[in-house]
Amino acid sequence: MLGHSHATSGAFAWSVAAATLPISALTYPVLTTADVHLGPVDLLLGAFLTAGAALLPDADHPNGTISHVLGPVSHYLCRFISWISGGHRHATHSFAFVIAVGYGTWAGEHWLGRYFTLSLVFFLLALAVRALHICPSGDGVEAWGTVVILAAAGTFAMDHWITDKPVWLPFSVGLGALAHLAGDCLTDRGCRLFWPFPLRTCVPIIDRTGNKVETWVLSPLFTLGTLAVLWHVFTTSP
């Protein structure tokens, strides 16, 4: 699937989860008896950050959306990850990766605190800006430079709203990665969900990336679904 489709699917997954799941699920693996409530700001932040997190599995794709998000830095990092993970749609397209990024986010929040949280927010916002086409196209400095400026501005704004250790952020990151796997499993190539085992899982609804089913049906439905669910939550919340 295209980066735009992954991002919109991540935002949709978050909005549905936030509207339907109990707070204990949204804050997993944090087990707390404190009175935790997701307000409108958390819901909106979660939608954007989960949209960005839905690009994370493509860190193994040197020519993917994530590769161009921060210019040469992200490109060479993706080339390294592709090499060490065995290529595109191998280790990073598995349940093991989803667990790793979810618990890795929790560990970073727990041990490193606010600096980690804001750094992660910046990176996820950068991914969302790139994938949702809120920047010039291409891989030149005008493209990734705009991404950096917009992500930095968004992080600065969120600094006034987000807590040091948002308990929902690990779930958001893991959910975004999981939404990515679900999307790629709709293609004929599928994913090695149970990596390191070689079994591939696929339900080939999309015969090729960027076809009409994806660009004219699935992605618009994800976008409209996200807006509809968030509108419902905002208008029905006490």
Describe this structure as you would to a colleague.
With 238 residues, this protein is mainly alpha-helical. It has one domain (3-236). It has helices spanning 3-20, 23-26, 40-53, 72-85, 95-112, 114-131, 141-158, 169-184, 212-236. Helix 1 crosses helix 8, helix 3 crosses helix 6 (114-131) and helix 6 crosses helix 7. The longest helix is centred in the C-terminal third of the chain and has 25 residues, at 212-236.
Percent strand equals under 5%
Share in helix: 55-70%
Question: Helical stretch count?
Answer: 9
Q: Work out the count of structural domains.
A: 1
Radius of gyration: 17 Å
- Main pleated-sheet profile: none
Order of helices and strands: HHHHHHHHH
Q: What do the pLDDT scores average to? A: 88
Spatial separation of the terminal alpha carbons: 38 Å
Number of strands: 0
| Unreliable parts | none
Shape: globular
**Class per helix and strand makeup:** mainly alpha
What key phrases describe this protein's structure?
mainly alpha; 9 helices
Short description:
The chain has helices at 3-20, 23-26, 40-53, 72-85, 95-112, 114-131, 141-158, 169-184, 212-236. It has 238 residues and is mainly alpha-helical. The protein has one domain.
Chain-wise SSE layout:
Elements: H1 3-20, H2 23-26, H3 40-53, H4 72-85, H5 95-112, H6 114-131, H7 141-158, H8 169-184, H9 212-236
